[in-house]
Write a structure and sequence with these properties.
The complex is a heterodimer of chains A (278) and B (221).
Chain A: H1 113-146, E1 149-154, E2 159-162, E3 165-174, E4 186-197, E5 211-215, E6 221-228, E7 238-248, E8 256-260, H2 263-268, E9 271-276
Parallel strand pairs in A: 1-9
Antiparallel strand pairs in A: 2-3, 3-4, 4-7, 5-6, 5-8, 6-7, 8-9
Chain B: H1 3-7, H2 28-48, H3 55-59, E1 62-66, E2 72-73, E3 77-93, E4 98-116, E5 123-128, E6 134-136, E7 158-166, E8 175-180, E9 192-197, H4 202-210, E10 216-219
Parallel strand pairs in B: 1-9, 3-10
Antiparallel strand pairs in B: 2-3, 3-4, 4-7, 5-6, 5-8, 8-9
The chains are: A alpha+beta (278), B alpha+beta (221).
Region (Disordered) (chain A): 1-109
Biased composition (Pro residues) (chain A): 63-89
Biased composition (Low complexity) (chain A): 90-104
């Protein structure tokens, strides 16, 4: 590496051989500069500022133009004095600032008191209503955002994927024989479902089963609990879930299985879900 | 108009405004009345702040109150208070074992019926005494025998018990509040609740506590 190498910044260089105090520095010597006493300001000292300021040189100052420029009408000596008593308090606020006019404008009359008070009341009520409306809309939109759900309808016999597992509904039927101690007017339903884990993340549904619900057409839902489920899920191997649920007899023919990723999501009805046609 | 005259402000002194003729001065009583009115309005605005709800009140659930044996309908569930009993000890019969819960005080046993409006839910009742003390359901009784483990669903009523371990002198005038069991950290915080007055006077409580029996049997799966 020699002194002409442009990549050599001189900050650090490895010793080529035996380091020595007289190893020549690669920097070029700078000429001596007088720093003290400060040199006298040069006659024509140019600034190094990058701010685009106009260069004003002595002797070339443009002559001041007369003000006001010739041709404009003369400024009125003073604001026109009010002819009569000052207007009532606040009456003149709505008026625009008086433009310099060549001739005195006709005197504007203030708004009538009743109209002014009505306008102020209306403004106060409108502002309060707007504040309440914005607050309520904010709270409502936040609530809806926090409780958003996305329920996908799955056609009969089709498969659908929910969180690393492919699900297929095998059947929804009235359980027979019916268990004892059923509440009057209710019927027990049995739902069979097959889940196939797509990858290693989908095998935990045998430990933490998803949230199963049966829903009717009007938005009411009922609990469904797995009474049979695979001991272990492995990717690619289908596992069978058997659910039992109690629903009113009137809706036994129409309830559909709704599958939420977990019990918490099912209780709050948030997130993604599958709804299987029967 | 030349550009340079825009950049360079006109520094020549503006002509001094002529003395404006002032209007007639307002009378003193007028000014005093205006000051009093202003102070009164400001004080009223400050006083109106005392009517605002505190943070706890704003977060409080919407309470539907009723007496015994009255159905209360909220947006999430309907509930009714069906029966109030006293017991010295509670025996929970399970499939292979029987748990016995005893107390130095008394067990207040409340039977609550409930049905859901839209979705299945679980309820968590608590007791509020006349002097504002709050009692949660006792943990001595296995929760499988209580309402907290039962699912309340739309379409039919379900009745279940809840057990409170309460000093007998606190029971008179108490009320039971039925709330949906929720996760405190997540979920809808604006939930309805129902409040039932037990309707027990001091004499009724004394009579009930004296007649409280041992070994109240209940089945917990």
């Amino acid at each position: 590496m020699n002194a002409q190498d442009p990549r050599d910044t001189g900050v650090w260089r490895p010793p080529a051989a035996e380091p020595s105090w007289f190893t020549p520095a690669p920097r070029l010597p700078r000429p001596d500069v007088r720093v003290w006493p400060p040199p006298a300001p040069e006659e024509d000292q140019r600034s190094t500022s990058t701010v685009p300021m106009p260069a004003v040189t002595n002797g070339s100052v443009p002559p001041r133009l007369p003000w006001p420029p010739p041709g404009t009408p003369p400024r009125p000596a003073a604001a026109p004095a009010p002819a009569a008593a000052p207007p009532p308090f606040g009456a003149g606020r709505a008026e625009p600032p008086a433009a310099p006019a060549t001739r005195s404008a006709p005197e504007r009359r203030g708004m009538p008191t009743a109209a002014r008070i009505t306008l102020q009341l209306f403004g106060a009520v409108a502002l309060s209503a707007a504040l309440l409306a914005v607050t309520g809309y904010d709270a409502l939109s936040r609530f809806e955002k926090d409780n958003a759900h996305d329920v996908r309808q799955v056609a009969q016999g089709q498969e659908a994927t929910l969180l690393n597992t492919r699900w297929r509904l095998l059947g929804v039927k009235v359980m027979s024989p019916q268990p004892e101690n059923m509440a009057p007017g209710t019927v027990s339903m049995q739902v069979d479902l097959e889940g196939t884990a797509l990858n290693e993340k989908g095998v935990y549904y045998s430990i933490a089963p998803p949230g199963f619900r049966l829903g009717d057409g009007t938005g009411r839902t009922w609990m469904a609990l797995a009474f049979k489920q695979p001991d272990q899920l492995s990717p690619g191997t289908p596992g069978r879930f058997s659910l039992v649920s109690s629903v009113p007899k009137a809706v036994a023919g129409e309830v559909e299985l709704v599958l939420w990723p977990n019990e918490n999501a099912a209780a709050r009805e948030i997130g993604q879900a599958l709804r299987f046609d029967r | 108009m030349a550009l340079s005259s825009d950049l360079v402000p006109d520094t020549s002194p503006a002509p001094a405004p002529a003395d404006r003729p002032r209007g007639p001065r307002r009378p003193a009583w007028h000014r005093i009345a205006a000051a009093v009115l202003g102070v009164a309005l400001a004080a009223g605005a400050v006083y109106a702040q005392t009517f605002t709800m505190s943070a706890d009140q704003r977060r409080a659930p919407l309470t539907f109150s009723a007496g015994p044996r009255q159905d209360v309908r909220t947006d999430h569930f309907s509930a009714r208070l069906e029966r109030v009993e006293f017991a010295r000890s509670v025996r929970v019969k399970r499939t292979y074992a029987t748990d016995e819960a005893t107390t130095d005080q008394v067990f207040l046993i409340i039977k609550i019926g409930a049905t859901g409006a839209r979705r299945p839910l679980q309820l968590a009742p608590f007791l509020v005494t006349a002097d504002g003390l709050r009692f949660n359901a006792t943990d001595k009784v296995n929760p499988t025998a209580t309402i907290t483990e039962k699912w309340v669903q739309p379409g039919w009523w379900r009745s279940a018990l809840c057990f409170f371990e309460v000093p007998p002198d606190k029971i008179a005038g108490a009320r039971v509040v039925v709330q949906e069991k929720v996760n405190d950290l997540a979920g809808d915080q604006y939930l309805p609740e129902t409040s039932f007055d037990l309707g027990l006077t001091g004499a009724q409580v004394r009579q009930g506590v004296e007649g409280a029996k041992d070994g109240y049997e209940v089945s917990g799966i």
